[in-house]
Every structure is written in structure tokens, then in C-alpha cells.
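Need the bound structure for copper (II) ion, inputs here:
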Amino acid sequence: MARALRRILAWAVVVAGLGAAVLLATGCALYSGARTSTVGELGFENELAIPPLLEPHEEDGQKVFELTLQQGRAELLPGTRAETWGVNGSYLGPTLRAARGDRVEVRVRNELPEATTIHWHGMHLPAFADGGPHQLIEPRETWTPSWTIEQPAATLWYHPHPHGRTAEHVYRGVAGLFLLDDREADRLSLPREYGADDIPLVVQDKRLHDDGSLDFSQAWISPTGRLGDTILVNGTYDPYVEIHDQRVRFRLLNGSAARVYNIGFADDRQFDLVATDGGLLEAPYRTARIQLSPGERAEIVASFRPRERVVLRSFEPELGTNFWEERFAGGDDSFDMLQVRAAAALDPSPDIAARLATRQHMHADDAARTRRFELDGRSINDADFDIARIDQTVEAGSVEIWEVRNASGTPHNFHPHGVSFRLLADDVSEPPPALAGWKDTIYAPPGKTLRLLVRFGDYPDPHTAYMFHCHLLQHEDRGMMGQYIVVERGGASSAHRTGHGDLGEATPSKESR
Ligand code: C2O
Ligand code: CU
Ligand code: CU
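Answer from helper R.:
Posting the output first, comments after.
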């Protein structure tokens, strides 16, 4: 009996050992297979597409833009055809452009087979025009928001926002840029000829089947969602761009669902970061890398010598998580993105302005209150998105501190609609220069707390909510999103009492104007 027992035990040990070995081997295989790199592997064979500038027409003193969301077929891989979605075309959309003070109207016609929305990411505008999940456009319907541009020059963008479907709609190809100008920025010495020395770069990762079609299979091991192994820039695979000026501005948008890029040149040359999400920095910041999580933008100006070729690359991003999550969230991935080919003769460009935007004063002391947002699992402050629940009520024109903590070990980021914010210093340091300007989307490293100084717009509307959410689109779709409304000054305490996670003590608001 004892002998039989011992034999069984011995077998059990062998089986368990084998099991562990198999698990370990699978883990190792998964781990090493999860690293993706295209560095040195591209031929830069296709000319970079530049999204066309959409000309508005004037009507009743408004600039009117017409957008049609449509199905189409696009050559995502040369020589193949993929079923895609696009705006006024088969993949991605045109660039809209307007200036501070302009009254704009956009007629968005939905010719897609399902309801969607178009959200103006980074725009300061009334909630009814924001294009969040509440402003659904049914198939064959047209949505026509209008508003006045009331914010500084910036690189904004637009994309769908139907709850639960955002990642897929963006992945299929619905997205585009919305550039804003202002007088102050127009006077600065900066490259500004669209498509020539001012080049938009919409960076997206895809998974493509051999026949060139989009792969919709779900990521089952990545903590952040589907990560593509193929980079498209403005929808172009393996792109190059020819330039004819000594200095070129690139407007970078991370239009991906989950991937974080750490962008720089292959030869490590430095460039000037001149703007982030919400507009120009006060002064150019010289650096060799700019990291962008999904939804973030940056404008950089780089210098070139005649005839040289240099590759714009995404280096391994710093996600600040453990080695396992890091690997499966793309933290060890690198990509060649675009080859810049300088012409034999380059037009001289003036030095870029040493001062860019004038400083707009906004101090932590101006904040009326602090609210906390804890990101964990797929929820914010332990609550999953509920379109029927208002989470926060803020007063029009107020300044608040929004304290965002990533309480998980997983990468997240944070984006509130309708506003720009500044990152405040934490206990140990001032914000890094690349995060010191106006932002509307910011990476939230695991375990870290970000203190954002937010100024809210002056469009009170107790009936229409703005969103705030993680901009990793699968997280957002799975419920990592909440809603806030903006009410009249003095209205927050009466009609709409606190929402979830509202920890603000009522320090009296110091009017700063
Ligand atoms: Cu790009 Cu809710 O936003
Ligand atoms: Cu947005
Ligand atoms: Cu997230």
C-alpha cells in the first residue's frame, strides 16, 4: 500500500514537473514571440499620402465643411485590397482647418452600415457639438454641429465615439486631423506650408492578413488591446516623403488603439518640440525623442541637409510597468515609420522662433477643488461606464485639479473632453518639458498619480455630458469612461450634488479674471 502510494506520488511529481516545464516553455515562447520590430526591414517604397485639406464653403458667416462617412476599399498593402471605412474617401479623412474666432459648421453624413459619431478630440466646444456617445448618427442621417473656435492654434483630430464600438470604427479607418490657427501663431517663424514643410503624420498600427485585409482577431494576452505589427502613416505602408526645405515641421498624431510610440530619428539627431496636444509650447524644447500614447499629438521641427536620407523611428517606449506587462503591451517593440528624403537643393528656412506661445497664467491656487480619478481594471473610481449616470458636475469657467491615479499595473492614459489642461509638479519634480505645455491626453504610468490643472469651458448645459476616459480604445470600449456636465456658476451645489469619486473640499473659488 505504502509502496503504491509512493509510486503515485512519484508520478504526480513527474506530471507536475512536466506541467510546469510546459507552462514555462509556453510562457517563454509567448514572451519572446511577443516582441515586434521592423527596424531595418523596410524598403521605403511608397510615397507618403498627405490627407487633402478640405475646403469649406462660406454660408451665413460660417465655414461649412462636408464630411461623408463611407465604406470603401483601400490598398493598405500595395497590390492588395482591404475593406475599409473612411471619410470622403475609402480610408482616413481629409484635414479640416479653421482659425480662432471662426464660426464652423460640419455636416457629417453617415453612409456606414451602422450608427456612429464623430468627436472633435481636443476641441473646446459646447457638449452638444462634442460628438461623444450621445450624439449618435444613424445610417443615412446627417449630424450638423456648429460652434465657434475659441482656443489657440493646435493640432486636433476627429474620430468616432460610439460606446463599445470606438476601437473598431477607428481601426477600420475613420479618423482625420483638425488644425487650428491663430494670429499669434501665424506671425511666428515656423514652417507652415501644409504638405510641403508642414507635414501631418497620422501613425497607426495594424494587423493585416496576407491578402491585405484587416485582421479583427482579439488580442487575448495583451493587457492593452490589439497591437499591430504593421505601421501605416497617413494610411501608407512603408512610406517615404521627399522634402525641399531645410526645416520641416511634422505634426504627429498617435491614432492607434493601444500602441505607445517613442518617436525620434534613427541617427538620434535632435529636433525641436514646438507644440503638444493643446497648442504651442512657450519655447521650443530640444530633444531626440517624443513619446505619444493613443490620442496624443506633438509638433516637431527637424533640420535636414541636402540629399540625406533619415528614418523616423519608434523606439521602445517607456511604459513604466513590470517586464511581463511591458512585453505584452508593446514596451519592447520598435518600428521604422518613415524615410525622409532631402532634395539635392533645400530652400533655406529661417531659425524657428525662440518664444512661441505667450504664457497663460493658471495656478494651482486658482483651483476651486480637487477630484480624484482612480484607474483600475476596466473602470474609473470602481464604476464602469453608464450612459445614464453623470459622474461629475463642474461649474462653467472654473479651474479644478483632477488627480488621476493609475492604481493598476497596466498602462492607461487619461483624456477629458472639451478642455486642455496643464500637468502640475508632483512631490519630487516639475513636469518633464515634453509634458509641460497644454495637453488633453496624457499617459498614466502604473502606480503613478498625475495632478492635472484643468480649466473648464463656459458652455453650461446640465442636460448634455462630456466624457473623460482612458484613450486606450479597448479599455474605453469596455467601460473605462465616465461623464461630467458643466453647469452655471454656483449651480454645482444646488441642482447636481456630487458624483462618484468626488472628494473635493469646498475651498472657495478664487476668481482669476
Ligand atoms: Cu479622442 Cu473621447 O476621445
Ligand atoms: Cu476627445
Ligand atoms: Cu486604459
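Comments: The longest strand covers residues 62-74. The pocket of CU-O-CU linkage (ligand 1) is lined by residues 119, 121, 159, 161, 295, 415, 417, 467, 469, 471 (CB under 6 Å).
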